[in-house]
Amino acid sequence: MRFLIPLVILGLPLAEIAGFVAVGREIGVAMTLLLVFASAVAGIMLLRIQGFGVLRRVQEAARTGNDPGLDVLGGVLIFIAAILLIVPGFISDLVGLLIFLPPVRRAIAAFLRRRMTILSSATGFYRSSRRQSSGPQSSGPQSAGPQSAGTPREQRRGPLTIDLDEDEFSRKTKDEDDPPPDRPPH
């Protein structure tokens, strides 16, 4: 196992170069370069499309209180697959395309889950829909804002307005020699 990593690090570039030479002989240099460019563009597009989908699923899992660990692991695998497509080479492109396939990605995720522990914790920013629909739970101070008054999220955050007096906040720096206009000098 110790010699496997250096072998892959040294062997993969050599295999990619051999792949370029073999494909270049068959279809020509221009078509080979076009294929490499097309795979990089496909990797960028798939990363964008699939990445936003994973982000939505992670946000939804966090919003409903479910564990987003599997979605995060799927997102990492999608990122790795996109990087493999963006990197020039036909072997890395083939591996990247395989990882983009959902059954292959699920199999890799299941293999990785058996070998590692995925920890996640709730951030407290979202509550499940059952608790939000139950209405106000306390009679604390409320303030008008973009959300309806009395939602559990607003009750946790407190009032949205902070009232500061002039002596508590100023956009200018005060000089000791220049007293505020509404106060007498010391």
Write up this protein.
- The chain has 186 residues and is mainly α.
- The chain is 61% helix and 0% strand.
- It is built from seven helices and no strands.
- The protein has helices at residues 4-27, 29-64, 69-86, 90-100, 102-115, 129-132, 152-157.
- Helix 1 (4-27) crosses helix 2, helix 2 packs antiparallel against helix 3 (69-86) and helix 2 (29-64) packs parallel to helix 4.
- It is elongated and about 85 Å long.
- It starts with a helix and ends in a 29-residue tail after the last helix.
- Mean pLDDT is 75; it is low at 124-148.
Mean pLDDT: 75
Low-confidence stretches: 124-148
The largest pleated sheet is described as: none
Shape: elongated
Order of helices and strands: HHHHHHH
Structural class: mainly alpha
Considering DSSP H and I runs of 4 or more, what fraction of the residues is helical? Answer: 55-70%
Number of helices: 7
The counted number of beta strands is: 0
Radius of gyration: 28 Å
Tell me the strand percentage band: under 5%
Q: How widely separated are the two ends?
A: 79 Å
